[in-house]
Write a structure and sequence with these properties.
about 475 residues; alpha+beta; globular; 10 helices; disordered N terminus; DUF945 domain-containing protein; 21 strands
């Protein structure tokens, strides 16, 4: 949530410069408070938004976030319900700080488009902060009784979302990267018993989503810690600004360029277990869903890849006609990638758009910036599905021009195992559904163009150029 991000940013910026006294005392508390508030505006610093006092061998730091949001609330949004959050900071070896905290949360946010409510019955954390890199070296978070709701207002009136999580835990570690001055981040998390209920309109039927558990693993390499911290510092200082001045825009642009490419690589994997989606039409269960996302840093030629795999679909019996039940996939695997995206150019375009003399940027200009070569490519290294009556895999790439009304080209390979078994299953299903006869005839015709690989699978190598000429295994087909 944005409030927690802001609080964490404000805390870590100040603590990075906090000296470690050999003895915890009132003077040390006063100095620590001055450091924690030095990056804030004068009215915030004077508002008792932050208080510090010595407690034994550590300092208790209390953030009264209600006072913080009283200062930054605007017509765009307002936040209520905050109660003071307590953190404990204890100096430890290597000039680091041991941080602990245990708080509950129950806040509401109102904006012209929605009313949000967010609560946590218990939220504890324990970690080590390293001023040398201005980041948490390690941190463990455990939460229970998490609830979230969103009710649409204005144009979104009638849209409603309710979500609960029984418990969640996250742990992250930061280690020095092989590149000087940069760090690598690893984060692992688990959610237990996630439940969501969504209604899109007042008279609409709800859609519910649940999962027994959700496991997440995230890594990012070569993070420029100090440059990213400078960006967060800039954001905190300008959080109330409606528009940056010319000098502010120049400063922000310099900070962004210093931080580029932001990371060397980014990887995220998510596994959902025992998923269930329910509507007024029925329920569909999935035993396991795996999702992964990978990308390079924000450069002039970045690669983005994602993969989605699902296993064991179990829909209600009346959702899938008996005739088609044999064709329900037992596994589904989709791998997609987009190479050579000019993220650095997009960032420059975005920076130009926020300046005081910014001009509108057209969609066509954005496409040309993203793909300077004039072509964008969607790669699909693997799209596969299996069941008891088929085993099919497709791979290839779709290439399209960024010019308006331009064509596209395709290179693809289709592989099918036990193809005769698939045709026989469709012919059997056609006895109850005659329309499937056309499908079986089409597959029989396709078999005539196929080649056989050493492993017994049938292969079709398909190519289509920009003038829509199609070839299958080298044989030119009639243009569509």
């Amino acid at each position: 949530m944005r409030s927690r991000v802001i609080a964490a940013a404000v805390f870590s910026i100040g603590l990075a410069g906090a000296p470690q006294a050999a003895e915890v005392n009132e003077q040390g508390a006063k100095e620590l408070r001055n450091i924690l508030t030095q990056s804030l505006s004068q009215d915030l610093a004077r508002s008792d938004f932050v208080t510090v006092k010595p407690v034994g061998d550590q300092y208790e730091i209390v953030y009264d976030l209600a006072k913080f949001f009283d200062k930054i609330n605007s017509r765009a949004f307002s936040v209520t319900g905050f109660k003071p959050l307590s953190l404990f900071a204890q100096p430890v070896e290597q000039e680091r700080w041991h941080l602990t905290g245990d708080n509950s949360l129950d806040v509401a946010l109102h904006s012209p488009t929605s009313d949000l409510a967010y609560s946590i019955a218990s939220n504890s954390f324990d970690g080590i902060f390293d001023p040398a890199i201005e980041m948490m070296r390690s941190m463990g978070i455990k939460s229970s009784g998490v609830k979230f709701s969103s009710v649409g207002t204005g144009p979104r009136s009638g849209r409603k979302l309710d979500a609960t999580i029984d418990s969640l835990s996250f742990a992250h570690t930061v280690t020095d990267s092989s590149e000087a001055g940069k760090v690598d981040l690893q984060l692992q998390g688990t959610l237990q018993h996630l439940n969501e209920r969504v209604t899109m309109r007042p008279d609409g039927s709800p859609i519910t989503f649940s999962a027994d558990s959700v496991d997440t693993h995230f890594t990012a390499t070569s993070l420029p810690a100090k440059d990213l911290r400078a960006l967060i510092h800039f954001f905190v200082q300008h959080v109330k600004a409606k528009q940056l001045s010319e000098s502010g825009s120049e400063k922000f642009e310099q900070l962004v360029h210093r931080a580029l490419p932001v990371f060397g690589s980014l990887n995220k994997t998510v596994t959902l277990n025992s998923v269930l989606v329910a509507t007024d039409k029925g329920k569909v269960g999935v035993k396991r869903i795996d999702y992964s996302f990978k990308m390079d840093g924000l450069t002039k030629a970045s690669n983005v890849n994602l993969e989605l795999r699902a296993e064991q679909f179990t829909p209600d019996a009346d959702l899938v006609p008996v005739t088609y039940s044999a064709f329900l996939p037992s596994t589904l695997d989709v791998q997609l990638g987009v190479p050579n995206i000019n993220f650095a150019g997009l960032i420059d375009t975005g920076l130009d758009a926020i300046g005081p003399h910014a001009a509108p940027v057209s969609g066509e200009a954005l496409k040309r910036t993203m793909f300077p070569s004039g072509y964008g490519t969607l790669e699909f290294p693997k799209i596969s599905a299996t069941s008891g009556v088929y085993d099919v895999e497709i791979s290839g790439a779709l290439k399209g021009s960024t010019k308006p009304h331009a064509g596209y080209s395709l290179q693809a390979t289709i592989l099918a195992r036990d193809f005769d078994k698939t045709i026989a299953a469709i012919q059997d299903a056609a006895k109850a559904e005659p329309r499937l006869n056309k499908v079986s005839f089409g597959l029989l015709a396709a078999k005539g163009f196929a080649k056989t690989d050493p492993d017994g699978r049938l292969r079709w190598d398909i190519a289509m150029d920009e003038d829509r000429t199609v070839t299958v295994n080298g044989q030119v087909m009639k243009k569509p």
